[in-house]
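Thread title: Can someone regenerate the structure for this chain?

I was given the following input by a collaborator and told the matching structure tokens would be attached. They weren't. Posting the sequence so someone can regenerate them.
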Amino acid sequence: MTETHENPNSPTASPSSRTSRRNVLFGTAAAGAALFAAGCTSNKSNDDKEEAGQANVADDKPGKQVTIGFAGPQADHGWLNAINEQAQERAKKYKDVTLEATEGSNDNAQQVGQIETLINKKVDVLVILPADGKALTQVGLKAMRAGIPVVNLDRVFASQQAYRCWIGGDNYGMGLNAGRYIGEKLKDKKNAKVVELAGIDNLELTRERTDGFDAALKNYPNIEKVARQAAEFTVESGQSKMAQLLRAEPKFDALWNHDDDQGVGAERAIKQAGRDDFLMVGGAGSRRVMDTIKADNGVIKATVLYPPTMAASAIDLARALGQGKGVGGLAEFEIPASLTLYSAVVTKENVDEYLPTGFK
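Best answer:
Regenerated them for you:
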């Protein structure tokens, strides 16, 4: 998922660039300049202008009919299944939206074929979560050239020309917040040791999560990361790689696991080893982990969110694009070019607030 140019979505951009520039990129400057010029010369009253602005904002009231094509990877993972559910449930909320969803695939060629079918159906807008952003960039470009705006969900395409709007999680921020939480818990402990159970190492998102984690730990000189294993976002890999970590490190104080699904296996390995002498922080925000945090009867003390609600928001953005409207609460008449979601840390103190967002 490496990118070919420097932009705020690029994994090669600096972490500060990714996390700051992504959050506040908005629609075309030319359109904004035109609106400003029109405002300076218009004879309309302020009330007329406010009404015009409100009419250009998407809301729940039925409007122009929009057909949204939705294409994501195969839902063979709890988080990905939640992505599909969020998109489908959000679409049902709107009487003016028809959702055309593919079966999903982890095979790049097959997913390209599914998206091309949606292009041939002439859907109004496409929402695409690519199995591999770089590999599917060309089909994103094809859709945009065909006049179908693309909402790129989470795994970013290699060219900004392949999408109109990107929305997704903050992988660097996810690692950063996990590291800060662990750092604060261990800041008074001498010679503290932590280990990391990462995700799939050939995905840029995994490297970004590790980079954020390592950056946070640099603020705590008493803490050393002594081991790291990369799993595969599956229960089986989580169990086997966690077992390796436990054998290699007979004593450590904290574990950060990138993914709550592979965490099911990690917890099995921990239980089998009879270990409870460290705290564990999960990743993504499954309902199972949130329930465990609330019960406070195990090693899991927190999880860092990677909200699947981004799929529901992607449907909102796609609908607004299809209707030529902006987003409520913002002054701009265009939807943003990029939206990065925040990776909140869920603990026993705030878990009730986040329970409704937990995925199965």
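Residues 1-53 have pLDDT under 50 and may be disordered.
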